[in-house]
């Protein structure tokens, strides 16, 4: 089969943006190629047009065209024409739900929309206002989609409710390469808590700051590292790091560090060296950061909301806590810091769970079976 992915992001030096959606697509694309299938990437919203092949994957970087009026419509139609022109050998095209990029498109090949979490979905979980056009575009795209996949049962259920969908949605969780995200010997002696991914309110980073104040009062030498892109807060207009610093008690300011985006391999180093990973998100679909930390056998404290129940097992693969419950967040982080045997046991359990349910060997076959079923129709 030849599968194409339409995406605004992908982890590659030539691509503008990279986050969870891009990482999940890369993992799946790599696994499909290794299974003998062909993969093409249509990466839109880029600063330049570029076409090349790398590791047997075909790349099309598509320039973000500007329009005086109606860009939301005309750029989508431009993408439609470009994809149709280059899709003769392609069997299936997959696109994300984010902002309804396929609204208005009429593609010549079967279209699959994968629910990574729409703007509507995240606005609902964060209880923040949404641009009406984003809701309409996402609804039009999903209403017209014949085939829909969701990365979690929770995201599937919420999306159906929000858009009043009657379509069948197949749940296929995100994929992780266990060989790439395997634990290795750490050369760091100091103990630190790590939060990685975008530094943004919805990731629970402000509540983590409150929890850290109480933790540092009990363990003065512990440090906290926020690793990722610093995002402007939607409520205040300030950088999220600025809001975090205001939450941290003055006496502990020296214990908190911010590291901007680093190359993928350096992220692995930070994750590997962390004593505890704390990811208390308010809003996710099926986060790659969690899978990466679990694969690397890390002591993990996460949110307990929705999707978490499909990924984690409380007290077995780590600890789960509601993002507003900073008291228990502190308690569970201290449990891990005080007990190396507990860190090791739950970390090993986490990797075993990933291997059984979310590894390449398991998830790629589910995707292949789904794609083959579409091709047979």
Task: Give the overall shape, derived from the CA principal axes.
Answer: globular
The run of helices and strands is EHEEEHEEHHEHEEHEHEHEHEHEHHH
| Gap from first CA to last CA | 14 Å
**How many beta-strand runs?**
14
Question: Which helices and strands, and how do they pair?
Answer:
Elements: E1 2-7, H1 20-34, E2 38-46, E3 50-54, E4 57-63, H2 71-85, E5 92-96, E6 111-115, H3 119-126, H4 132-143, E7 147-150, H5 153-163, E8 169-171, E9 192-196, H6 205-218, E10 223-227, H7 240-247, E11 256-259, H8 264-273, E12 276-279, H9 288-295, E13 299-303, H10 308-311, E14 319-321, H11 326-338, H12 340-357, H13 360-376
Parallel strand pairs: 1-2, 1-5, 2-4, 5-6, 6-7, 7-8, 9-10, 9-12, 10-11, 12-13, 13-14
Antiparallel strand pairs: 3-4
Task: Describe it.
The chain contains 13 helices and 14 strands. It has 377 residues and is of the alpha/beta class. The strands form two sheets. The chain has an eight-stranded mixed β-sheet with strand order 3-4-2-1-5-6-7-8, sandwiched between helices. α6 (205-218) runs parallel beside α7 and α6 (205-218) crosses α11 (326-338). The model has no long low-confidence stretch (mean pLDDT 95).
What's the short story on this structure?
The protein has 377 residues and is an alpha/beta fold. Helices cover 41% and strands 19% of the residues.
């Amino acid at each position: 089969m030849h599968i194409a992915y339409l995406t605004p992001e992908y982890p590659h030096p030539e691509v503008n943006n990279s986050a969870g959606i891009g990482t999940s697509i890369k993992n799946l694309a790599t696994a499909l190629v290794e299974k003998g299938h062909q993969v093409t990437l249509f990466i839109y919203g880029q600063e330049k047009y570029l076409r090349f092949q790398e590791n047997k994957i075909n790349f099309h970087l598509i320039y973000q065209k500007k329009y005086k009026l109606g860009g939301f419509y005309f750029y989508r139609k431009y993408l439609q024409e470009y994809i149709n022109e280059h899709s003769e050998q392609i069997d299936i095209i997959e696109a994300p739900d984010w902002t309804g990029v396929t609204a208005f498109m009429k593609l010549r090949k079967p279209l699959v929309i994968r629910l990574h979490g729409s703007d509507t979905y995240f606005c609902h979980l964060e209880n923040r206002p949404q641009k009406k056009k984003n809701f309409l575009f996402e609804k039009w795209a999903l209403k017209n989609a014949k085939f829909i996949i969701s990365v979690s049962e929770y995201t599937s259920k919420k999306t159906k409710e929000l858009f009043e969908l009657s379509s069948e949605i197949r749940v296929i969780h995100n994929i992780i390469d266990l060989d790439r995200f395997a634990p290795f010997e750490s050369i760091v002696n100091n103990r630190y808590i790590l939060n990685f991914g975008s530094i943004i309110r919805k990731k629970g980073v402000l509540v983590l700051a409150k929890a850290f104040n109480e933790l540092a009062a009990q363990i003065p030498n512990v440090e906290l590292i926020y690793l990722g892109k610093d995002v402007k807060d939607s409520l205040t207009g300030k950088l999220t790091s600025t809001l975090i610093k205001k939450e941290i008690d003055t006496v502990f300011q020296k214990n908190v560090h911010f590291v901007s985006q680093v190359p993928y391999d350096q992220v692995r180093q930070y994750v590997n060296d962390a004593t505890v990973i704390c990811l208390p998100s308010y809003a996710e679909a099926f986060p790659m950061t969690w899978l990466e930390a679990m694969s690397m056998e890390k002591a993990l404290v996460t949110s307990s909301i929705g999707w978490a129940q499909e990924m984690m097992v409380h007290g077995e693969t780590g600890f789960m806590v509601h993002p507003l419950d900073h008291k228990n967040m502190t308690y569970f982080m201290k449990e891990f810091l005080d007990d190396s045997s507990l860190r090791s046991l739950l970390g090993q359990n986490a990797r075993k769970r990933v291997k059984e349910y979310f590894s390449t060997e398991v998830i790629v076959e589910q995707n292949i079976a789904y794609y083959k079923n579409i091709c047979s129709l």
